[in-house]
Design goal:
This protein is α/β, with parallel strands linked by helices and about 300 residues long. It has eight helices and 17 strands. Strands 1, 2, 3, 4, 5, 6 and 17 form a seven-stranded mixed beta sheet that branches. Helix 1 (about 10-25) links the parallel strand 1 and strand 2 (about 30). Helix 1 (about 10-25) runs parallel beside helix 2 (about 55-65). The longest helix is centred in the C-terminal third of the chain and has 23 residues, at about 275-295.
Length: about 300
């Protein structure tokens, strides 16, 4: 089936774009595998009128809003491949393919945590990565900061806004004498041994076990995560990236391939709050529609 626009990804950016496409009377298909990165947490914060909403409820409400507009349809499926053709693009899913003049990629990010046993048992419940998303809920607690030395000072400063009881864990990375000195001046302990395990119950972190068997008591933590956008289904598209592997896009979100756009975290190559992704998805959608309307006029 032919569409004017195919949106790949049903997160905040993709759904916000779909809402705008519906209101713009654009024949749109949203393909969403429904494996959002934020499924590990029970609450999302910082979105005006939606503060504290669960990611699942947010998505349900967003799809209810979009359902009012008959030009938008959804497919719960995984994208396998995208190929460019003379008229636009062909998007392949298991057993089906769809064509569209324009494509918006809004799949978010692939996320990986540190190589620490039991990490996933606590991530999203008492271990987080974003102070602006979850710092308030973790306020005044004894917090572990599990970050590389390169990012350590930045996170210590940010998290000091929420707690004065911070402990740094470098997970085997050595630190300079200068780093030790300023941390000591701020009464912040630092452990450079490898982390052997995380301990607690029901998702609540209570101790960190080091390789030397020392157990350090904590009440939660913030950890560095790794993200990328090297999705297998993009293999047949020659999308240009910069030296940091971020997609190169213009001010309208258009990539090096005409009529192929990117929005939200996928464009930023960095995890953010849902309000930011949704705002960007809506903005890029308007740019896509203006481009199409101008070309057809």
């Amino acid at each position: 089936m032919d569409y004017e626009i195919i949106v790949i990804g049903g997160g905040p950016a993709g759904l916000s774009a779909a809402l705008n496409f519906g209101r713009g009377m654009m024949h749109t298909l949203v393909i969403d595998e429904d494996k959002p990165r934020n499924r590990v947490t029970s609450e999302s914060h910082g979105y005006l009128t939606q503060d504290g909403i669960s990611p699942t409820e947010f998505k349900q409400k967003a799809k209810q809003d979009i359902a009012k507009y008959k030009d938008v349809s959804f497919l719960a499926e995984r994208v396998l491949d995208i190929k460019q053709n003379d008229d636009g693009f062909e998007v392949f899913t298991p057993g089906q393919s769809f064509t569209a003049r324009q494509v918006l990629l809004a799949t978010g990010l692939r996320e990986r945590g540190p190589d620490i046993p039991s990490f996933n048992e606590f991530y999203g419940q008492s271990i987080f990565y974003c102070p602006w998303c979850d710092g308030y809920e973790m306020r005044h607690r004894k917090l572990a900061i599990i970050y590389t030395v390169e990012m350590m000072a930045h996170m210590v400063k940010l998290l000091s806004n929420f707690s004065k009881d911070l402990i740094v864990f470098t997970n085997g990375e050595s630190v300079t004498t200068e780093d030790k000195a300023w941390l000591k001046a701020k009464n912040i302990d630092i452990y450079t041994d490898f982390i052997a395990d995380l301990n607690g119950e029901n998702g609540q972190l209570t101790h960190i076990t080091l390789a030397n068997d020392e157990k350090v008591e904590v009440e939660g933590g913030f950890s560095q995560m790794q993200w990328d956008t090297h999705f297998d289904f993009l293999k047949n598209l020659s999308l240009e990236r910069d030296e940091n592997e971020k997609f190169e896009v213009n001010a309208f979100g258009e990539t090096s391939i005409k009529h192929f756009y990117i929005a939200g975290e996928t464009k930023d190559n960095f995890a953010g709050q849902i309000i930011d992704a949704a705002a960007n998805g809506g903005m890029v959608a308007k740019m896509i529609m203006m481009t199409q309307i101008n070309e057809d006029f």
